[in-house]
Amino acid sequence: MKAWLTALVCSAAAWLPWAAAAQPAQADAAHLDYRLQARELAPGVFVVEGARADFSVANGCNIINTGFVVTGEGVVVVNTGPSRLYGEQLRALIARTTREPVRQVIHLNLHPDYFLGNQAFADVPRAATAATRAGMQREAKAYEDNLYRLCGDWMLGTEALLPDADIAPGTLRLGRFEIELRELRGHTASDLVLVVRSGADPLGVVFAGGLVFAERVPTTPHAQLAAWQASLRELALWPQALWVPSHGAVDGGRAGIAQTQRYLAWLDTSLRAAAERGDEMNDVLKQPVPESFRRWAAFDTEYIRNVAHLYPRYEQAALKPAH
Hints:
Structural class: alpha/beta
Strand order of the largest sheet: 1-2-3-4-5-6-7
Largest sheet: 7 strands, mixed
Order of helices and strands: HEEEEHEEHEEEEEHEHHHH
Number of domains: 1
CATH topology: Metallo-beta-lactamase, Chain A
Radius of gyration: 19 Å
Strand content: 15-25%
CATH class: Alpha Beta
CATH superfamily: Ribonuclease Z/Hydroxyacylglutathione hydrolase-like
Helix content: 25-40%
């Protein structure tokens, strides 16, 4: 691989165990305001939308859609964002929205922007699946270092505070809400999906986590494409109309199921064919990509990561002797 491509892949692949730039980027400390806003999707169910982009100083590493549910007996928070500062500003936003106390935090997978805001919720039970908790423990220090290098002062004071309890598939009932938890896999080894229902909204809102990307190139550092596609086929059968992907357009959330399916299918076919031809990674990155995918958020950096994360597996598979 050419030297320039190696450097490009290493810097662009910088989120888990992504390498990162050698020096931290800096933000203007006087303007470290995420300007978080709560958007009510259904009575009592709120989403806080992140930038439709890649991690950067400009967005403070805030590229995630977090959420919270005001149940009548306390607030359930879905993910806490990428930094201590984000977590603090999210908690302040919740306090401005309702007088109810925060009762529970739930994390949908192990990626850094799902839990690095936890310091602001140190007094609240924080739960994730056992596999997600183990992954967070394994990756936490690398997350802290890499996001600081990517987003500088936005990350000041951020130290990983892990979930303190396991959560399993089932149903959580609080106030007027029923929150169904389903565990799927493919984006990571454990992808928790929440269906939030109330008497006024029996179908509910789906927090789909990293399984669904809407108008945004998927991230793949822990991806298993076959398992991911199986999970997407299951999600496509669900009847809900309101979907919250962790990344990308909330209004296009359900459409994001089909978008993610198409992209993963194309990526799988493209990488397999390249490996069977014996292409080097440099050749793969030069191949044409459908224009519809090129228009999605974060294409310029995320597609390079996709290839860096996944192509070595296809090369290994192509080298195995036929039986």
